[in-house]
UniProtKB/TrEMBL annotation:
Residue span, CN hydrolase domain: 1-246
Cited SUPFAM superfamilies: Carbon-nitrogen hydrolase (SSF56317)
Molecular function (Gene Ontology), one example: hydrolase activity
Annotated protein name in UniProt: Carbon-nitrogen family hydrolase
Keyword line: Hydrolase
Family note: Belongs to the carbon-nitrogen hydrolase superfamily. NIT1/NIT2 family.
Highest taxon above the source species: Bacteria
InterPro entries from the UniProt entry: C-N_Hydrolase, C-N_Hydrolase_sf, UPF0012_CS
Coiled coil: none
Origin organism lineage: Bacteria, Bacillati, Actinomycetota, Actinomycetes, Micrococcales
C-alpha cells in the first residue's frame, strides 16, 4: 500500500476557490497511490473561526464535488480532510447548532463513501464548542487491506476513542489535523502513543503555514504499530509518501500479543 499525506500550507490571503483548485491539483498529482489524506478544515481554516459560517458547505457541496472529481481522476482512495459542514437539509443538533466538523472519504471512482463528525471539539467553550455540534458515531474506512478508524485532531488526546475503534477491528487510524506549533511535542508523542498502545498503523496529516495568527505545527507522520516513525514531514508544505505492507500489522500482533493481555 502506498499512502500520501498532503501537508497543506495556507494563509489568510488565499480565497476558498483558489485553495480548492490548488488542493484538487495536489490530489491529482498523487495518481498511483492507494490512499491520500488531507488535513482538517483546510477549506474553512483550522483556526479561522469567524470564517466557518461563511465557508461552511454541505457534504455534497462545491468542495466535496472538487474532491470527488480529483479522487476519480487520480484513481485513489481520498480522505479529504474535514469541512465545516452545514447540511442543506437545515439539520440542527441537540445543542441547536447547524455546523459540524466533518471528514469526507471518497472512493477511487469519486463516490462519497463515509463521513465522520468530529466527536471531541477543541476550544474550551470557544471555537468548536461554541459554533459546532459534537459527533457521536464511530466511523471506519475499509480499504486497501486496512480497517481504518477515523478521528480528527483534538480527538487524538482521548485514548478511549481509539480503544473503542480497536474493539471494532481497527488496524489503522487516519487523523487529519490543524495542530498548532505551540503543542508540537504533544502531537508527535500522541501519534506514537496511539500506535503503540493499540498496535495500529497511524496516519497523522497536519496543516502547515500560518493563518488566523496561528502558526501550524506540520510534522505529519506515518507511525508503524511498533511505534517506529516511518516518515515525518517538516513544518512547511510537503507531500509525505510511504509504502507499507499491511500484512505486517497482523504479523506483529501475533508475534507480540500484548492486546490479548488486556484485563479491563
Amino acid at each position: 500500500m502506498r499512502v500520501c499525506l498532503i501537508q497543506l500550507a495556507y494563509d489568510d490571503d488565499e480565497s476558498l476557490a483558489e485553495r480548492t483548485r490548488r488542493v484538487a491539483g495536489l490530489v491529482r498529482e498523487q495518481a498511483g497511490a492507494d490512499l491520500v489524506v488531507l488535513p482538517e478544515l483546510w477549506s474553512a481554516g483550522g483556526f479561522s473561526y469567524r470564517e466557518w459560517p461563511e465557508r461552511s458547505q454541505d457534504v455534497r457541496g462545491e468542495v466535496a464535488q472538487a474532491l470527488a472529481a480529483a479522487a476519480a481522476d487520480a484513481g485513489v482512495w481520498l480522505h479529504g480532510g474535514s469541512i465545516a459542514e452545514r447540511p442543506d437539509s437545515g439539520e440542527t443538533g441537540p445543542e441547536g447548532k447547524s455546523l459540524w466538523n466533518t471528514s469526507l472519504v471518497f472512493s477511487p471512482s469519486g463516490e462519497l463513501l463515509a463521513t465522520y463528525r468530529k466527536i471531541h471539539r477543541f476550544g474550551f467553550a470557544g471555537g468548536e464548542p461554541k459554533l459546532m455540534e459534537a459527533g457521536t458515531d464511530l466511523v471506519f474506512l475499509d480499504a486497501v487491506g486496512l480497517r481504518a478508524g477515523l478521528s480528527t485532531c483534538y480527538d487524538l488526546r482521548f485514548p478511549e476513542l481509539y480503544r473503542a475503534q480497536l474493539d471494532q477491528g481497527a488496524t489503522a487510524f487516519v487523523i487529519p489535523a490543524a495542530w498548532p506549533m505551540a503543542r508540537l511535542d504533544a502531537w508527535r508523542l500522541l501519534l506514537r502513543a496511539r500506535a503503540v498502545e493499540n498496535q495500529c498503523l497511524v496516519l497523522g496529516c497536519n496543516t502547515a503555514g500560518t493563518h488566523a495568527g496561528t502558526q501550524m505545527a506540520g510534522h505529519s507522520a506515518v507511525v508503524a504499530p511498533t511505534g517506529e516513525v516511518l516518515a515525518e514531514a517538516g513544518d512547511d508544505q510537503e507531500v509525505l509518501r510511504v509504502d507499507f505492507d499491511v500484512d505486517t500489522i497482523a504479523a506483529f500482533r501475533q508475534d507480540f500479543p500484548v492486546l490479548a493481555d488486556r484485563r479491563l
